[in-house]
Amino acid sequence: MKSIAAITLDLDDTLWPIEPVIRQAEQNVYAWLARQCPRVTQQYGMKAMRRMRKQVAAENPSLKHDLTAIRRLALERMFVSCDYPLKYVEDAYAVFIEARNQVQPFPDVLPTLNALHGQWPMVTISNGNADLEQIGISAFFEHSVCARAVGAAKPHPDVFLSACDKLGLKPEQILHIGDHPQEDIVGAANVGMKTVWLNRQRNTWRLDQRPDAQISSLSEVLSLIGDTVLEIPAAQQ
Protein backbone atom coordinates (compact mmCIF):
# COMPACT_ATOMS: atom_id res chain seq x y z
CA MET A 1 0.00 0.00 0.00
CA LYS A 2 2.95 2.34 0.52
CA SER A 3 3.62 2.59 -3.21
CA ILE A 4 0.22 3.81 -4.37
CA ALA A 5 -0.07 7.16 -6.14
CA ALA A 6 -3.85 7.45 -6.52
CA ILE A 7 -7.16 5.99 -5.36
CA THR A 8 -10.22 4.90 -7.30
CA LEU A 9 -13.57 4.30 -5.63
CA ASP A 10 -16.80 2.59 -6.51
CA LEU A 11 -19.98 4.58 -5.76
CA ASP A 12 -23.19 2.62 -5.14
CA ASP A 13 -23.09 0.55 -1.93
CA THR A 14 -19.54 1.81 -1.33
CA LEU A 15 -20.21 5.48 -0.63
CA TRP A 16 -23.97 5.17 -0.03
CA PRO A 17 -26.66 2.46 0.11
CA ILE A 18 -28.33 2.24 -3.29
CA GLU A 19 -31.36 -0.03 -2.81
CA PRO A 20 -33.53 2.47 -0.88
CA VAL A 21 -32.58 5.21 -3.35
CA ILE A 22 -33.66 3.19 -6.39
CA ARG A 23 -36.83 2.09 -4.63
CA GLN A 24 -37.76 5.71 -3.89
CA ALA A 25 -36.87 6.83 -7.42
CA GLU A 26 -39.12 4.15 -8.91
CA GLN A 27 -41.95 5.12 -6.58
CA ASN A 28 -41.58 8.75 -7.66
CA VAL A 29 -41.79 7.74 -11.31
CA TYR A 30 -44.85 5.62 -10.63
CA ALA A 31 -46.58 8.51 -8.86
CA TRP A 32 -45.72 10.82 -11.78
CA LEU A 33 -47.09 8.29 -14.27
CA ALA A 34 -50.29 7.95 -12.28
CA ARG A 35 -50.82 11.71 -12.65
CA GLN A 36 -49.56 12.30 -16.17
CA CYS A 37 -50.12 8.98 -17.98
CA PRO A 38 -52.68 7.06 -15.93
CA ARG A 39 -53.20 4.30 -18.49
CA VAL A 40 -49.65 3.14 -17.79
CA THR A 41 -50.25 2.61 -14.08
CA GLN A 42 -53.62 1.03 -14.83
CA GLN A 43 -51.87 -1.59 -16.92
CA TYR A 44 -48.59 -1.90 -15.02
CA GLY A 45 -48.13 -2.14 -11.27
CA MET A 46 -44.78 -1.46 -9.61
CA LYS A 47 -43.76 -5.11 -9.83
CA ALA A 48 -44.75 -5.28 -13.50
CA MET A 49 -42.66 -2.19 -14.25
CA ARG A 50 -39.63 -3.79 -12.59
CA ARG A 51 -40.21 -7.00 -14.56
CA MET A 52 -40.33 -4.95 -17.74
CA ARG A 53 -36.95 -3.37 -16.95
CA LYS A 54 -35.41 -6.77 -16.22
CA GLN A 55 -36.89 -8.18 -19.42
CA VAL A 56 -35.43 -5.33 -21.47
CA ALA A 57 -32.04 -5.88 -19.84
CA ALA A 58 -32.15 -9.62 -20.56
CA GLU A 59 -33.11 -9.00 -24.19
CA ASN A 60 -30.35 -6.42 -24.69
CA PRO A 61 -27.10 -7.83 -23.22
CA SER A 62 -25.16 -5.34 -25.33
CA LEU A 63 -26.61 -2.59 -23.10
CA LYS A 64 -25.36 -4.14 -19.85
CA HIS A 65 -23.10 -1.13 -19.41
CA ASP A 66 -25.88 1.42 -20.01
CA LEU A 67 -28.50 1.40 -17.25
CA THR A 68 -29.92 4.68 -18.56
CA ALA A 69 -30.69 3.17 -21.96
CA ILE A 70 -32.30 0.12 -20.36
CA ARG A 71 -34.64 2.24 -18.24
CA ARG A 72 -35.56 4.43 -21.18
CA LEU A 73 -36.30 1.42 -23.37
CA ALA A 74 -38.53 -0.04 -20.67
CA LEU A 75 -40.42 3.25 -20.44
CA GLU A 76 -40.77 3.35 -24.24
CA ARG A 77 -42.35 -0.09 -24.29
CA MET A 78 -44.87 0.82 -21.63
CA PHE A 79 -45.81 4.10 -23.28
CA VAL A 80 -46.24 2.42 -26.67
CA SER A 81 -48.36 -0.38 -25.21
CA CYS A 82 -50.60 2.20 -23.54
CA ASP A 83 -50.81 4.43 -26.63
CA TYR A 84 -48.85 7.38 -25.27
CA PRO A 85 -46.34 9.39 -27.35
CA LEU A 86 -42.65 8.78 -26.70
CA LYS A 87 -42.18 12.43 -25.73
CA TYR A 88 -43.07 11.34 -22.19
CA VAL A 89 -39.98 9.15 -21.90
CA GLU A 90 -37.60 12.02 -21.17
CA ASP A 91 -39.95 13.57 -18.62
CA ALA A 92 -40.43 10.28 -16.78
CA TYR A 93 -36.71 9.54 -16.81
CA ALA A 94 -35.97 13.03 -15.47
CA VAL A 95 -38.17 12.23 -12.47
CA PHE A 96 -36.20 9.03 -11.91
CA ILE A 97 -32.73 10.51 -12.22
CA GLU A 98 -33.50 13.42 -9.90
CA ALA A 99 -34.52 11.02 -7.13
CA ARG A 100 -31.72 8.60 -8.01
CA ASN A 101 -29.19 11.27 -7.06
CA GLN A 102 -30.79 11.97 -3.67
CA VAL A 103 -28.34 9.68 -1.92
CA GLN A 104 -27.36 9.64 1.74
CA PRO A 105 -23.64 8.84 2.15
CA PHE A 106 -22.62 6.43 4.88
CA PRO A 107 -21.44 8.34 8.00
CA ASP A 108 -17.78 7.52 7.36
CA VAL A 109 -17.73 8.76 3.76
CA LEU A 110 -17.58 12.57 3.82
CA PRO A 111 -15.05 12.78 6.69
CA THR A 112 -12.81 10.28 4.90
CA LEU A 113 -13.10 11.99 1.52
CA ASN A 114 -12.20 15.26 3.24
CA ALA A 115 -9.13 13.64 4.79
CA LEU A 116 -8.01 12.14 1.47
CA HIS A 117 -8.77 15.18 -0.66
CA GLY A 118 -5.66 17.11 -1.59
CA GLN A 119 -3.43 14.25 -0.45
CA TRP A 120 -4.35 11.63 -3.04
CA PRO A 121 -5.75 12.03 -6.56
CA MET A 122 -9.13 10.26 -6.59
CA VAL A 123 -11.33 8.95 -9.40
CA THR A 124 -14.72 7.26 -9.20
CA ILE A 125 -15.46 4.10 -11.19
CA SER A 126 -19.10 3.07 -11.46
CA ASN A 127 -21.47 0.92 -13.48
CA GLY A 128 -24.33 3.18 -12.38
CA ASN A 129 -25.59 6.58 -13.45
CA ALA A 130 -24.97 8.72 -10.37
CA ASP A 131 -24.23 12.39 -11.03
CA LEU A 132 -21.49 13.64 -8.70
CA GLU A 133 -22.41 17.27 -9.37
CA GLN A 134 -26.01 16.74 -8.32
CA ILE A 135 -24.94 14.73 -5.29
CA GLY A 136 -22.50 17.45 -4.30
CA ILE A 137 -19.23 15.51 -4.06
CA SER A 138 -17.60 16.21 -7.43
CA ALA A 139 -14.99 18.50 -5.84
CA PHE A 140 -13.35 15.52 -4.17
CA PHE A 141 -12.49 13.81 -7.45
CA GLU A 142 -10.21 14.56 -10.39
CA HIS A 143 -12.21 12.40 -12.77
CA SER A 144 -15.25 10.15 -12.94
CA VAL A 145 -15.39 6.95 -15.02
CA CYS A 146 -18.80 5.47 -15.82
CA ALA A 147 -19.54 2.27 -17.68
CA ARG A 148 -21.90 4.02 -20.08
CA ALA A 149 -19.16 6.32 -21.37
CA VAL A 150 -16.57 3.55 -21.63
CA GLY A 151 -18.91 1.15 -23.39
CA ALA A 152 -18.26 -1.67 -20.96
CA ALA A 153 -19.23 -2.50 -17.38
CA LYS A 154 -17.10 -3.64 -14.46
CA PRO A 155 -15.41 -6.06 -14.15
CA HIS A 156 -14.34 -5.46 -17.79
CA PRO A 157 -10.71 -4.30 -17.90
CA ASP A 158 -11.52 -1.27 -20.08
CA VAL A 159 -13.37 0.43 -17.23
CA PHE A 160 -10.39 0.27 -14.89
CA LEU A 161 -7.87 1.05 -17.62
CA SER A 162 -9.87 4.17 -18.48
CA ALA A 163 -9.27 5.39 -14.92
CA CYS A 164 -5.55 4.64 -15.28
CA ASP A 165 -5.45 6.68 -18.48
CA LYS A 166 -7.20 9.62 -16.86
CA LEU A 167 -4.73 9.56 -13.98
CA GLY A 168 -1.72 8.99 -16.21
CA LEU A 169 -0.59 6.13 -13.97
CA LYS A 170 0.12 2.42 -14.25
CA PRO A 171 -2.46 0.08 -12.69
CA GLU A 172 -0.02 -1.07 -10.00
CA GLN A 173 0.22 2.54 -8.78
CA ILE A 174 -3.52 2.74 -8.07
CA LEU A 175 -5.59 1.44 -5.18
CA HIS A 176 -9.22 0.55 -5.95
CA ILE A 177 -11.82 0.43 -3.18
CA GLY A 178 -15.21 -1.17 -3.71
CA ASP A 179 -17.90 -3.34 -2.17
CA HIS A 180 -18.48 -5.90 -4.93
CA PRO A 181 -16.13 -8.94 -4.88
CA GLN A 182 -16.33 -9.68 -8.61
CA GLU A 183 -17.05 -6.30 -10.21
CA ASP A 184 -14.67 -4.29 -8.03
CA ILE A 185 -12.03 -6.50 -6.48
CA VAL A 186 -11.46 -9.16 -9.12
CA GLY A 187 -11.96 -6.67 -11.93
CA ALA A 188 -9.39 -4.22 -10.56
CA ALA A 189 -6.93 -6.94 -9.58
CA ASN A 190 -7.04 -8.43 -13.07
CA VAL A 191 -5.56 -5.26 -14.56
CA GLY A 192 -2.92 -5.03 -11.82
CA MET A 193 -4.45 -2.58 -9.36
CA LYS A 194 -4.13 -3.00 -5.63
CA THR A 195 -7.52 -3.68 -4.07
CA VAL A 196 -9.40 -3.05 -0.85
CA TRP A 197 -12.72 -4.78 -0.24
CA LEU A 198 -15.09 -2.50 1.67
CA ASN A 199 -17.12 -5.14 3.48
CA ARG A 200 -19.63 -3.15 5.54
CA GLN A 201 -21.79 -6.22 6.18
CA ARG A 202 -18.82 -8.31 7.33
CA ASN A 203 -19.59 -11.02 4.81
CA THR A 204 -17.33 -13.99 4.13
CA TRP A 205 -15.04 -13.74 1.11
CA ARG A 206 -15.90 -16.64 -1.19
CA LEU A 207 -13.69 -16.19 -4.26
CA ASP A 208 -10.25 -17.70 -4.86
CA GLN A 209 -8.71 -14.36 -5.84
CA ARG A 210 -8.47 -12.30 -2.67
CA PRO A 211 -8.24 -8.53 -2.07
CA ASP A 212 -5.04 -6.99 -0.79
CA ALA A 213 -6.94 -5.77 2.26
CA GLN A 214 -10.41 -5.82 3.76
CA ILE A 215 -12.11 -3.03 5.73
CA SER A 216 -15.57 -2.54 7.21
CA SER A 217 -15.49 1.27 7.23
CA LEU A 218 -14.09 3.60 4.58
CA SER A 219 -12.16 5.49 7.26
CA GLU A 220 -9.96 2.43 7.79
CA VAL A 221 -8.31 3.05 4.43
CA LEU A 222 -6.38 5.94 5.99
CA SER A 223 -4.35 3.54 8.12
CA LEU A 224 -3.70 1.32 5.10
CA ILE A 225 -2.06 4.15 3.18
CA GLY A 226 0.09 5.33 6.04
CA ASP A 227 -2.20 7.78 7.85
CA THR A 228 -4.04 7.44 11.12
CA VAL A 229 -7.57 6.07 11.14
CA LEU A 230 -10.02 8.95 11.07
CA GLU A 231 -12.29 8.96 14.09
CA ILE A 232 -15.94 9.56 13.21
CA PRO A 233 -17.76 11.76 15.77
CA ALA A 234 -20.24 9.69 17.78
CA ALA A 235 -23.13 11.88 16.55
CA GLN A 236 -22.41 10.79 12.95
CA GLN A 237 -22.13 7.05 13.65
Description:
The protein has 237 residues and is an alpha/beta fold. The protein folds into two domains: 6-17 and 104-236, 3-Layer(aba) Sandwich (Rossmann fold); 19-100, Four Helix Bundle (Hemerythrin (Met), subunit A), CATH 1.20.120.1600. It is 45% helix and 11% strand. It contains eleven helices and six strands. The chain has a six-stranded parallel sheet. Helix 10 links the parallel strand 4 and strand 5. Helix 1 (19-36) runs antiparallel to helix 5 (88-100), helix 3 packs across helix 4 and helix 4 (67-81) crosses helix 5 (88-100). The radius of gyration is 19 Å and the shape is elongated. The chain starts with 5 loop residues before the first strand and ends in a 13-residue tail after the last helix.
What is the fold-level CATH name, i.e. the topology of the largest domain?
Rossmann fold
The domain tally reads 2
CATH architecture of the largest domain: 3-Layer(aba) Sandwich
Calculate the mean pLDDT score and round it: 93
Q: Could you tell me the strand content as a percent range?
A: 5-15%
Please identify the top-level CATH class of the largest domain: Alpha Beta
Largest beta-sheet characterization:
6 strands, parallel
Structural class: alpha/beta
Elements, N to C (H/E):
EHHHHHHEHEHHEHEEH
Distance between the termini: 27 Å
In DSSP terms (H or I, runs of 4 or more residues), the helix count works out at: 11
Side by side, the strands of the main sheet go: 3-2-1-4-5-6
CATH superfamily of the largest domain: HAD superfamily/HAD-like
- Low-pLDDT ranges: 227-237
